[in-house]
Structure formats: C-alpha cells, structure tokens
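[Automated response] Your request has been received and processed.

Submitted sequence:
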Amino acid sequence: MPQHAGDQEPPPGCPAHGRTPLYGPEFGADPDAHYAYLRSFGPTAPVEIAPGVPVELVTSYSTALRILQNPSTFVRDSRRWRDLNEGRIPADSPALPMMGYRPNALFSDGAAHARLRNAVTDSLATVDEHRLTRLVQRVAEYLISQFSGRRIGNADLVADYAQQLPLLVYSDLFGCPADIGDRIILGISGIFEGADGANEILGGALMELIALKRRHPGDDVTSRMMQHPSGLSDAEMANQLVTLLSGGTAPLQSLISVGSALMLGDDRYAQTQHSSGLLVEDAVSEVLWNYAPIANYAVHYPVHDVEVDGKVLRADDPVVISFAAANTDPAMAQDRSLTGGRAHLAFGAGPHVCPAKDPALVIAITAIETLLNRLPDIELRIDLKDLSWVPAPWSRSLITLPVRFTPKAQPVQPPLASAQGGSAARSAGPAQPAKNTRWSKFLTWLNGGV
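Generated structure:
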C-alpha cells in the first residue's frame, strides 16, 4: 500500500508532506476532504490529532473493524503511550484530557475491563425504555417551553435544546438531587467549554453523589452500579460516572442537533402532499453513518510491532479509529443503506462497543420527535449547507442551529410526578435546590412550580 499521498492534492491546511493536522478551521470546514486525502496513504495515515501529538489514523472500515475486534493485539491502556512516557507530548495539550489514562472501562483491558464494564452494562440494562421515553418527553417539553414563548419566535437548538437535554435526562437517570445535579451539569459543560476548574467541580459533585447513594440508595443507575457484584470502590464509581456522564453528552448533543437539522433542512425528510417523507429514525441513522458524533477516537496501542495492510504499526504508538472516515469508506458504498443499514461503527465494535447505544437512540429519536410535534411549523433560519461545525477532531458537532417558529402563548404545564418514578425528585434528601440553575429549575417545573 502507498506510504504517501502520491500526486493527489491535499485539501487546504494539509501539508504536502508529513502529518496532516486534524484540527483547525480548514479541517472543521471540510473533514470529508481530509479523509479522502488521507485514504490515498492506505488504510491508515499519519496525522496530528492536536499540535505536537502524532497518531496513526485508521480510515478503512475493514481495518477499523479488525482493530476494534482484536483486543489481544490492540489494547486501550494509554499508560503504554510511548511519546507521553518519553516527554514528547506538551503538558498543556488538548489531547491529554481525551487520551490520558483514567482508571475506567474505557482505558482498561482483559479481566479488569470486563469487571468494570459489567457493572455499567448490567446497570444500564435496568433502564426501562418506556419510562425513559416519558422522561425524555418531559425534559423536551420543559426545554421547548423555555424558548417557545419568546415573542421573536427564534431559538438556537444547540444551546437551547440539544446541549441541555442529555444533561437533564442523565441527572434524573443517575438520581441527582438538585444541588449536586446543578454542579454536575456545570462541571460537564465546563469541560467541553474549557472552563477553569471544571474537572474539580465535576469530581467534587460526583463524590458527593456517591456518598449520598451509599447512605440512601435509590431507584437509579448510580445506586445499581454500587450494588453490582463487581463491588466498585468510590474511586472506581467516580471514574465510571465521569465516562458515562461526560462521554455521553457530546455524542447525544450532536445526534439530536444534526438529526434535527436534517429533518428541517433536507428535502428528503420534508412532508409533501405526495410523500410522507423519511422518518426521524432515518435521519438518526444517516447521522450515525455520515456525521458520526464521535468522529475520531477509540485510541489503541499495539502490544508489539504489527503489520496491517502492508504498513507496520509500532508497539505503544497510538492508533486512532476514524469512525467518520470508516463509515464513509467508498469500499462500503454497496453494503450500506440510508434507511436500513446498522453496520456503521458510530457506536464502536468489539469488547468496547458503546454500552449505552440503545438508550442513546431512544433519547435522540424521542427528543427530535417531541420537538417536531410541539413546534410543527419550525424551520431553519439558514440553509442546511451553510451551518457551521466545531473545528475539533473528536466529534462532529454543529456550532449553532438557528430556527424560527410561531411563538406559543403559554408554556406547557408539567404533570406533577417524576418521569422516572421519582428517582431524582424523591431521592433528593435534605438538599435544597439552588436558584437559577438548570437541574433545580427543571425539578421546580416538573413538580408544578413556576
């Protein structure tokens, strides 16, 4: 296989020789052109995932699947990372929070991974789909009620809806009382926004949640993880919760916002008198194929030098899976379909496949359907092709999603019961809701307040 790009011209921002940067405005504006260029190197290509952070990027679907399903040769423990161990990674690199080791299932292998993962998967398996659907509908109705009464009839569905909905849903699923839930939301939002002290805020709130659930377990995922036969320690609990809460927020934000953009701005999904259009499920499927929410991640480390499709991958050098490039691999063109194909890699594959993929689909589809039902005349304020994307390698996310609609005269009044059978509202204990914060304001609304 070729080791260089030959005569193919690189897209703007790409060097003619050396490693291609997977960051910056040029990459953000047209990642597909970068992936097309990188495919000319073969099934993997040399890139910089951040300034001064070299990795090998897998762009081939079949090669990605081979690596994801071969945990004996390709491991996830980033303590093996050669450049980091030898001092060549900048201490302030934005890649470190994403690639640096954490003692959780994401960075574990073998028996250690199985023990941690089983606690997560078994606990998530207890989430009832019908109750989850009702919860998402109520969170969606709350958020819509907050912006649909504006006299101008405008909103940004990223900031006003897609960013907030997963955080509020997770706060209920994990049994957060108002004050702790507010700080968890603040910490997770701060991590994605690069705010100082966000890690400390999130860590402190999670430890308080764990201590509370040790004393007063409830009908929530946190309590079930604690009660699992794996016997997770408080530190292990905290690290699993960081992965579940923060790792699930960005992909769902992307899935909801990009899926909504397709429903509103793509003629294939429009309702006409001659056709009912494609369904929300179809739009979500297209996002998973063509706009993989986790675009480039799943960092692996070969345990020894290994030849992959004619190229030698060195032991302990990071190999990053490009879910975005693999899903759009031209070799897959005949094997995928818009409305029925489920062989995409958006949720990964192998032993580290996303444990929350089924709840994620329920959340995304329900959020989009509720939006369209509550605001039937909602439409984009700009053309679909003119939307702007976050110029980051890890996820494929919209910066904004501006819409307009006919304002609602009165906000929807909520029912007086918690959607999850009271998991958050009734297990809050003695904590008092803080004022003017997302989770406490939602709980006030949910229980009939103003």
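Summary generated for your ticket: The CA atoms of residues 20 and 227 lie 47 Å apart. The mean pLDDT is 85.
If you did not submit this request, please reply to this message.
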